[in-house]
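Example record

The entry below shows one chain as it appears in the dataset: sequence first, then structure tokens.
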Amino acid sequence: MPHESAVTLFRGVSVYDPSVEAAMRGPLDVLIEAGRITRIAKTIEPPPGARQIAGIQHLLMPGLVNGHFHSSVNHMKGRLPGLPLEIFMLYESPALDVLMPTPREAYLRTMLAAIEMLKSGTTAVQDDAFFVPQPTTEIIDAVCQAYADCGIRATVALDEPQVPELEKLPFLADLVPPHILDELSRSPALGREDLLGLYDHLITKWHGHANGRIRAAVSCSAPQRVTTDYFHTLDELSRDHQIPFYAHMLETKLQRVLGIEKYGGRSLIRYVHDLGLLSERMNIIHAIWVDDADLDLIAASGAAVAHNPISNLRLGSGVMPFRRMRERNIPICLGVDEAIADDAVNMWSVIKTAGMIHNLSEADYRRWPQAAEIMDCAIEGGARAMGMQGKLGRVDVGQIADLILIDLRSMAFSPLNDLQRQLVHCEDGRSVAMTMVDGQIVAERGTTTLVNEADILAEAREIFSRKAPALADAAAAMNRLLPFYDEMYFKAAAVDVGMNRKLGETRSS
């Protein structure tokens, strides 16, 4: 389809450039045509019909990339206390028919996060979308249409387990009574062929849609949640279409214990490597409970790691070994994870947390993350994880124009002492004056330009307030499983796995 973006000329902006000491240069003019940066110079004569944007005391920089996200619970922010992942998931996404969304609900809940991202300067998102109790083509369409309508760049996968609950977790089979054992032994409603049919729909209808803004990815959710046959088939899809492959691995200590119990002592990283499925297309999500052997395998494969520090704190999962990954040149992107595990969809909070939490990992302060490294993860690391390195992530001629304009007169930068440190530690999204995706301005002066935010929020408040009793009933229905999951969790917590990824003294009971 032809590109419909207007020609835009930024006049006299400071241009973000992490290769120079001040991390910016200028003032410069930057010309945007057909969704690309076509010229950067001291002065550019405006083409006929170009919109000119005064950039004095503003910074033009690449938009942020939300490198890992689940859109499906955007309407549930604030609903749950801090809980370990395996218990959290009982209440976050039980596969109950009462939670089946209408397409309109799926559209609205996706749009809630998209609006928040665009207004705060996130121009691209990797959505590992899960669907409760199961996906349909209509709901997939609703999610993708929301992203298309608001103007954001989105890569969407279908995060769907394919094996019974008992196969995903250690110890549980020995802890539950027979009637619950039977329930947890049932396979999900949709099998391999059903899910592949849905992937065919996603890829055929949406991959490359909206001038390439909407793209497909694949997801196994996690290696222990699918059969090896389906895992290999997803990898073939990823390879054939050259699209990312999302896989949660070693997010929690319990998942490390699962490797001991189910995979002959192998970690999930080693298990996936032995299947021949670690590749440069894979996004390894979380990678907290990894050892040096795991990191060597990741580095050799070229896979990227998605770091979600706020979610990891919210769920008590642990702290990822950031420095050891950077030493191996493992690509790292940053992600929100999901609104219910972050309670916001603001990448600046993620950036700030990533810039601080690793200071507690070791005494040698010279190995703590620097602001430039964190910004690299948030921008170019995100582009790499999306498979768009060289196309996104820099303000250079030829790059796709996914850009944000930061007001350097704002509180976060007054006075301006060190740009990158202030981006990491001071900015919260309020300085974002404009957001551009694919050369089109999609948010400006605190409001989105392609969708009516006020109407969407009002409709979402009305619809999801009516949904609240169903959410409460679903949570209550899961209480009967809590004692068994508690016992499983504490049993795994007591296992010595040869490492600690939590801070301070830990207790197993």
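Notes for this example: The first strand starts at residue 8 and ends at 16. The chain has 17 helices and 19 strands.
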